[in-house]
Design goal:
Strand order of the largest sheet: 1-2-3-4
Structural class: alpha+beta
Order of helices and strands: HHEHEEEHHH
Strand content: 15-25%
């Protein structure tokens, strides 16, 4: 009887974790959006709608350190990976097209934990803050987002070296979607950001194919972007 109860609790915990990644009553906004600067409708309409955007800095600003064993690649490798994914997504979204001069989008990495393994014990996280800056460097948008990946049944990682494979492109997709939404005249406080990296990339978030064309990073892609040789399988 006790064994059955334990099994039920484990299944319930796994289901709850899966639901949290799938977007049921959750949001990717850090701390419910406290500390965020979300432009009002007038700012969106007058400053951001129809605007061209360019990617500026992608950098580390760690506000919640984690054990280095949870991100086994060098720190600058994760910066390179995120920058590469953002460049691809920005290009696919056509964000350079619009009213000039373009506004700058800077992205800071605040927390990263990349671990391989099933839910609910192995949850990866990548927290970023996106800043959209006006012509004089003023901050018009501050958007802190938390992306999660629990690997679940789709886990094929052979090592923690590959545990970034959903988190990095998932974060880049959400950031790009936010900027593109501003360009389309939408207020960010009206949006519901999904924290599940796998869910975002596989189309469930958009209700269709990922419009920014990012996907799970393969070992070969990671090696090409970072210049590192990984031990994981291709």
């Amino acid at each position: 009887m006790m064994k059955q109860i334990h099994k039920t609790l484990v299944l319930a915990g796994s289901l709850a974790a899966l639901l949290s990644l799938g977007g049921c009553a959750t949001t990717a906004l850090v701390d419910g959006g406290r500390g965020a600067v979300l432009p009002d409708q007038a700012t969106v309409r007058n400053e951001l709608q129809g605007r061209a955007f360019t990617l500026g800095r992608v950098y580390l600003d760690i506000t919640k350190p984690t054990d280095k064993s949870s991100h086994v690649l060098p720190d600058d490798a994760y910066v390179k990976l995120l920058r590469s994914q953002l460049e691809t997504a920005f290009r696919n979204a056509g964000l350079s097209q619009g009213k000039q001069p373009a506004y700058t989008v800077d992205v800071a990495i605040n927390e990263m934990r990349f671990v391989s393994g099933p839910l609910p014990m192995h949850n990866g996280v990548l927290v970023t803050t996106t800043y959209v800056k006006g012509l004089h460097g003023e901050s018009l948008v501050k958007l802190p987002l938390r992306m999660l990946d629990g690997a679940t049944m789709h886990d094929t990682n052979s090592s923690d070296e590959e545990a970034h494979r959903f988190l990095v492109p998932g974060s880049a997709t959400s950031i790009t979607h936010a900027v593109n939404s501003l360009r389309n005249g939408k207020r960010l406080d009206e949006m519901r950001f999904n924290p599940g990296a796998w869910y975002v990339l596989t189309g469930g978030y958009f209700g269709s194919e990922n419009p920014y064309k990012l996907h799970m990073l393969t070992t070969a892609e990671t090696e090409a972007i970072t210049g590192l040789k990984l031990s994981g399988d291709k």
